[in-house]
Amino acid sequence: MDEDEVRALAALTTVAPPGDPWLGAVLAEHGAARVWADLVAGAPPPAGPADGEAVVDRDRVALRWRRWHAQARGVDVDALLAASAAAGVRFVAPGDPEWPGRLEALDAPGGRRSHGLWVRGRGDLRNLCLRSVAIVGSRASTPYGGHVAAELAYDLAERSVVVVSGGAYGIDGAAHRAAHAAGATVVVLACGPDVDYPRGHAGMFTDIARTGVLVSERPVGLRPRAKDFLVRNRLIAALTPGTVVVEAGLRSGALNTAAHAAELHRVLMAVPGPVTSAMSAGCHLLLRDRQAACVTSAEDVLDQIGPLGGVPPGPVRVTAELAPESARVLAAVPRGGGGPAVIARACGRDLESTMRALGLLAAAGLVERCPAGWRPVR
Hints:
Elements: H1 3-12, H2 21-30, H3 32-41, H4 58-72, H5 77-86, E1 89-92, E2 117-120, H6 125-130, E3 132-136, H7 143-158, E4 162-165, H8 171-182, E5 185-188, H9 202-208, E6 213-216, H10 226-239, E7 242-245, H11 254-263, E8 267-270, H12 281-289, E9 293-294, H13 298-305, H14 324-332, H15 340-347, H16 351-363, E10 367-370, E11 373-376
Parallel strand pairs: 3-4, 3-7, 4-5, 5-6, 7-8, 8-9
Antiparallel strand pairs: 1-2, 2-6, 10-11
Helix pairs in contact: 1-3, 2-3, 3-4, 7-8, 10-11, 14-15, 14-16, 15-16
């Protein structure tokens, strides 16, 4: 994707709500650079591929377009990118080496596709999501729920599975802390990635950024709005092959994440709780009516998810000289570990060929997975 497209997508995140279906269709049809230029200029909203259908309310579209135009006139893209860089935040657009491939599931017609992600942290988002599981649940968790979430997250992280959650109090926080203690974790926020929300997790977010990432569809400095949490939940479900609901009441937002997981054909799992606990009623609903798999341990979760892209056990080292391409990739692998996108940039190759080379090097026993991505075998 060229620079003009990336800059336009970054700018659009400041004025348009994430996951807007009409905007997604228009961007796919016309490209972000043209859409942003028309928006700033105050031109009429561009026609989308579904504009001839009754489902498109042109009056409503025009109203939103005018509101976005009023905001767009005050957006300085250079200042936005500079402020983001100063906060340690980068913008990742679809097609970038760090863009998670699983998010393509949101691109279906009528879907709530993601236009771009603001990422904070040293981890490589794409690499972290390759072997990942979402763990979600109630903010007002019980000691039982917190214990189960922490145990699941820690055991999964020990098996090099990255835990993805929403950064909230309760189950999310327990899962993040335990996963970070044993490996890496991904926090999906409803606010700007530099905004510590909830405030009590500021220290945890700083620690997570050292090995994992915090990701959001909203730019730096923006506080969360109530509707942003529900829109954010689709990302948690889409980034991973499966979602575990540890503890949730009947009105818990975790059930919204579970619904997204089911719509995206991801594996849906739930942990049973005491039949007398209202905080487990949502999990029991998923088990009874939504065909969620019953899980009680990391082994159960891995049995449901299946292979997560791990390298085969017992690697055999090659004795022949490495091909020049593989040797370049091996030389670019940081001793402390790095994601495929980082390695690709360092060796000057594209992401696809770099990942193929990493697979060959792993089979030869020359590199291995680590929380940061790949590292040389000592």
